[in-house]
Amino acid sequence: MSTLTAPKKTEEHKPAKPRARNHHGVSPALRADHNALRSVGVFLLWAVVAISIAMLLWMVLQAFRDTRSILSDPWGMPNTFDFSNFVRAWTVSDFATATFNSVITTGVSSFLTVAVAAPAAYYLSRVESRLTGGLSLYFILGLGIPAQVILIPLFIMLNEVNLTDSLIGLNLVYIAMSMPFTVFLLTAFFRSLPMEMEEAAALDGASALRTFVQITLPLAKGGILTAFVLQVVAHWNETLLALTLIQSTEKYTLPVALISFVQQQTYSGADWGGLFAGLCIVVLPMLIIYVWLGRRLTEGLTLGMGK
Amino acid sequence: MSTITGRRNAVTAPASAKKPKPGQGGSSIDRQRRKLLVPFVGPAFIFYTVLFIIPAIGAGWISLHVWAGSGPMKFVGLQNYVKVFKDDLFLKSFGNTLLLLFVVGAAIFILAFAMTLVLRDMAGKKIVRNVIFFPHLINALVFGVLAGFIFNPGGMVNTLLKPFGVTEPPAWLAQENIFPLIMATLVATTTGYFTTILMAGVDRIPPYFYEDCALAGATAFQRLRYVILPLTWDVFGTCAVLWTISSIKIFEIIWVFGGSSGAGIPPTQSWTTAVYTYVTAFSGQSTPAYGAATASAIISLALVSVLVVLLRRAMRRDAVEF
After folding, report:
1. Domains in chain A, please, with CATH?
2. Is residue A117 less than 8 Å (CB to CB) from chain B?
3. Other Cβ atoms within 10 Å of A267 Cβ, number
4. Which of A193, A202, B95, B236 lies at a CB distance of 3.0 to 4.6 Å from B29, suitable for a disulfide?
């Protein structure tokens, strides 16, 4: 938590003598040195930014063109905003069901993940003993286990209880899989919250449970929202387990539907228009979330991981 | 932070639902909290144990057997591992995984670090950072499909090259070219994420260090060598661990890259161990070999564990407090 104390003294510690302001408002000593290499770097970075945005725009625009014109001129722009690709992807190629399944699965599993992980993280952050130390370690261990390790045993276990090819099964798996990261992130977050409010509540006679629900949870809203959104992103994009555990078309989540759409093309001829529409359906919700809650996401992923 | 709560007697096995003895240390709220162990940690513990840890242990067990998923399991000890290491397909997949891990990893780190240094004090850094982070939120499938379009024979790259007189461009999506192309795509789409993390580390460095450098007349290289690197060392370590863990899981992008050929299985030249595991168990092409498939997965797990331990060793320095 050294970040909290990272000094912001520079302003105050400037020499008292007023100094001519330069155009950046930084002291000359700190101004970036302008050499050729750096300029090239800056130029390249902006090029990367421009290309990234152009790619995204290009992908969205292609979704409005029909396959033949996409193939004949991949650089072309749509003449009209023709939604037929989306309509076809939505109705014929079952992207509608897949989107619905994905939305439900993502929403439910992310919510439950946070609901299950938050109390555990709270306990692990507030009670210090050898047991909680061990438990924390036990949860962190899962961060290093790649999904392909648990793939086959999970398939067999769920098959025993008829939970393969079932969205309920998939939800349960997602919740379990997200435990390590979510517990880890939230533990760090609860640790950073001040204890004074809880102590005051306890002095007023609130039980530990009530303190958690009425004091800590509202204080922790930000961190919990971050954890939730991170899980939404992870579960929306999860592919390998969905591909393995789901077999029937009407239960496909979006990534699986997209894969099956790509694979059908080898038989039914390329439908790039429909494919681009499908890609948009996968990407655009993430873009909306990013524009809406972007700062939370980057902070959660960078700080949560950093410490 | 922890000093407020830290002063507390070490209790060996505190109160798994049993009443803690009063006066065992801590205030009454602490004692109350301890009682919440089962209701609070229980659900998370059960989910995680039943659907994550037990399968992981199960994988170890299955890898010691020959098993087709149904019918009897035959115990063969470590033979699956021996067999897998004699299998050319697995060796190719393992080699590819190592290429991703080390070559792509090195490229990402060099680029990300270079980008961080440029970004550090550049105008508009927030915009750049926000844009380059976004690919991390997109399913890698999307990049695989897009790359297939961009590099296909009549696709964007070839039409771009035509004015430069390239009339016979390389067959980008030929089987032997696919894997290098996947590596390039991964570098392009992952660098931004690691740049963002490194940036967070570099931004923590208080500016008076740079001021000191300037006063002492340090060159840009010296500043890098004696200030930026030592103070971001732990962030580098974290990034390396993160990349190790995530590179082993790479699957989606390979699965669809270039609009997979034929029966929906990517060409064997581009397999990774994750693909090998999936195909060996679930492709439906031949009898599933669960033993070999899990053996391959366990080998990747072993690789991750060894590397993470080594990384932690190698990156361990005295933490620089600032």
Report:
1. 20-84 (no CATH), 87-306 (1.10.3720.10)
2. yes
3. 6
4. A202
